[in-house]
Structures are given as structure tokens and as C-alpha cells.
Amino acid sequence: MKDYQLDCPLGYHRLAVVGIPDVPAPIGTAKIVAEVVQYFITLMDSLKLGMVAVDEIQPLLGDLMSSLNQVNTLPPEFEAKQKVQHWLTTLNKMKASDELDKEQIRQMMFDLESSYNAFHRAI
What we know:
5 helices
């Protein structure tokens, strides 16, 4: 570095001290993570806007579960996966025209928010 009059202390630290080059995540991984975040936000916003019928929520929940399963670094017993799967199972037992009651809406919002926070901590 001195021979070429380069001043790059962070690069030197990363290569000489740490010893591993910083490899960014593959582009596909970033896309999947963005999709998971999108589905969490869309689902929570839908509930806040009063979309509480099974046929309105179930497809969004299914998309969220599908995208969570694509994140390879999350274990199968990951909290968010379990909670989303629980709600999918619950909604699949109901008729399409059924609506969630206030208690179910509140619990689903709580579960989604805690799952969203757990997902952020995991990535």
C-alpha cells in the first residue's frame, strides 16, 4: 500500500487483520428478504384497514409463509414460521366468508409484529 501511496485503512483491516474478504449476500437472498418484509407489512396493513375475512387474509398469509420458507438461513422451528403456520391452519379450518373477531385480529397483529421483529433480528 505504501508503494502505491494507497490510503485504505478499512480494506487493510479487513484483509490483514480479519483475514476474510467481505462477501455480500447473493442477490437472490436480498430479493427474498425484501419479499418477506413486503408480505409482513402488507398483511399488517390489511388488518389495520379492516380486511378481516378469511378469503382476504389467507392468500397474504400463504405468500408470507412461502417466502419465509425460501430464506435458507432460518431454521424450521423459527418463531415466525411457527406463528404464521398456526394462523394458516386456523384460517384453513374456517369458511372463506368467515371473519376474524376482534380478539383474533388483535392476537394476529401481535403475532405478526413479534414475528416481524424476530425476523429482523435473525437477518
